[in-house]
Design brief:
Number of domains: 4
Largest sheet: 6 strands, mixed
Distance between the termini: 21 Å
Strand content: 5-15%
Number of strands: 8
Shape: flat
Amino acid sequence: MYDKESICKVIEYNENINKPEVIYGRLPENSDECLLDEKYSYFGSSEENIGKIIKIENEDLDENDNPIFTQKELKIVGIVDSPLYISSERGSSSLGSGSISLYIYCKEDVINLDYYTEIAVQVKGAKELVTNSNEYLAVVNPVIQKIEMIKEERQEARYNSLVNDANKKIDDAQKEYDDKKAEADQELADAEQKINDAKSELDNSENKLNKSEKELNQKDPKVRYISFSRNFGKEAAMYAGLEAAEGDYVTLMDADLQDPPALLKQMYDAIKNEGYDSVGTRRVTRKGEPPIRSFFARMFYKIINKRVDKMIDNGLVQEVKNLYTNYPKSKILKRAIGYKEIIDLPKSHGKIPNTMIFIGLISMLTLILCNEGTSIYKGFTYQIIAMTSLFLIVPTVFYKEEDYSSKDAFFLLGAVLFLGLVFNAFLTIRLRNLNTFLFLLIIPMVNDIFAYLIGSKFGKNKMCVNISPNKTWEGSIGGLVLGSASGIIFYRLLIGRITLKIVIITIILSIIGQIGDLIMSRIKRENGIKDYSNIMPGHGGILDRLDSSIFVFITYIFLLMF
């Protein structure tokens, strides 16, 4: 009910001393009721606060790890003026702003503590005297001195009690540690013995293997045995074997013979008689394999088969070199931000001169970089949009219609503004907060993954046949639920506390991500293309990878206004 800088003091209601005066409402009768400070009017006037609910974030624990407050919500039933405060000051605090902003009274069973933080004392005979007069001080000071002595005694007793409890816990922990250590030492000794036994057995097996290899090599010189000084991994072993291999054909085979050697003859026949350059095998059954492993294996190969159109047969490094060689830097830049992918759409426009394409690119880059790290609505964004509009539309007067029409100009302008603001949003949010940037990436990513997996497994009802024939309502709902849940979990772990607003925003973004995917798919279908480009072999272009994220980011920028 109050902001983060406000500090609230909770006071136990006592009918015998410092009894507050009820201005509005009544005294609390139940444990879930409280009285509110008359000076605090966050909701409006004091009388309007009656009936409002104070929610308690029960994070503080007592010595036994039990919540200090026994109630999660307190209902305001009365507005009071306390004799503890004769001015607007409510005291000081080590928290927040350093000042107490308000107080509330509650029943004694609301606060679960075995000690008091404050005491109130009535001194006999002081009531009739003038405060701070010599007579008043003569009556009160002896009582204060006695209380100070009691305070010191109680502090020492409390300190000794805490120290004794702590020492007992330390002793118990030390005993548990010693017991566990002795148990661990014994287990370690047993493990070392097993390792030594296994090493001895391995040495014996290696000696036998070396002996067998020598015997086999004597019988057949084609048999060779290579042994590493230690285990460098499967890939290193394969490389060593391939380097040492001689002959026209080479195959790889696991030592456990999970690939039947009988297939070697069929593979050889396929190369010799059927015209293949290489032959591979695959598993056709996963009988005996754990179900969870089989599931993820099937899903992996389904995703690969759906997404991969080209095998990288020269190695990734060589492919990257080829990509750089085939495309000048300017083309790589245009593809990297999706600009050329839009320009190359075959059915969206006519012929656009290279000069205008270059002007559009410069305008787009300027729009992207017009960013103060705060918002796309600051800086010179409006001016750049205005100049871009002039630079791209006005030249239609000087070009022939068949060379650069108004339709071409407005298409180019739309592409520049759309992509410019989109990547500006990416940059803005990245500069503002990396965790928020990752949060917005995770929502559409998880949404897409689970929409595909669930749709492939359980999808029956087609969603948008004319746009994306493979999408189903089952996959869409599954992706929406799991994408939203993943976003909420990520937000709680790395950003902050989950509120109803955050939940609503996450769900909206998850829905927008799916809509964005459909929009970008429709553009491709209308233009008769499968992918926007082939800058990433097997994955398409930048716009193919960012189709959902594009609309998530610009929607989030829009929602920041509210």
